Amino acid sequence: MLRPLGIEYIPRLAAGFLKANPGQDIQFTFHTGVTQYLLDGLAARKYDLVFCSQPSEEHKFTAVPIQKQNLIMITPQSHPLSAQDSVDLVETIPYPQIFFEKSAGIRNVIDQMFARTGASPKIAYETEEDQVIAGLVAQGFGIAVVPYMDILQKLNVNILQIRSPNYERAFFMVHNDCVFIPPVVQKFRQFVLDDGMMLTEEPV
After folding, report:
1. Contact, 115 vs 135, CB < 8 A?
2. pLDDT above 90: residue 15
3. Which residues touch 126 (CB under 8 Å, ≥6 apart)?
4. Which positions, given as ranges, span the membrane (predicted)?
5. Domains within the chain, CATH numbers bracketed
6. CA distance 37 to 42
7. Are 142 and 115 in contact (CB under 8 A)?
8. pLDDT tens for residues 80-135?
């Protein structure tokens, strides 16, 4: 699973599933990583299910959206954009930016967002960890598009809502139809689907 999903969402579902099936010998194993790492593990049959960004069509996996997520722009507190409450991404083009590495599923979403502005961002640094990006922004290395994280409230950053362009960021539950899926895994998959899609919101 992606690390953001391991903070509350997946543990809540796993605990709920165990509670709904008392007395059964059900064992979970949990692994975290970036999307490509998780999909490689699914292809290698290391995992029964993975929770990650949307896989590309070349993987030929079955992917179901299970959670939506809002993205925000963060800036150092002394940045020229920091006085704003919201921003159009085209306004950020002149400034150095910190991006997720291309192995991160969220990178494709952010690339598409900037492509819709018709301009290319100035990518100063790349890393795969959202908290590392936030730390670099706090120290003035650039600005960044990231998912909301509670740690942002403790750092010297300003949070700006993204007015434009419109976007959709979703997490997916993914499995491989070409391999046998144990009945208990099928049951958990249905349990997740019955839980319904959540929208992760940042505090107002």
Report:
1. no
2. yes
3. 98, 99, 100, 101, 102
4. none
5. 3-66+169-200 (3.40.190.10), 70-164 (3.40.190.10)
6. 9
7. no
8. 999 999 999 999 999 999 999 998 888 989 999 999 999 999 999 999 889 999 99
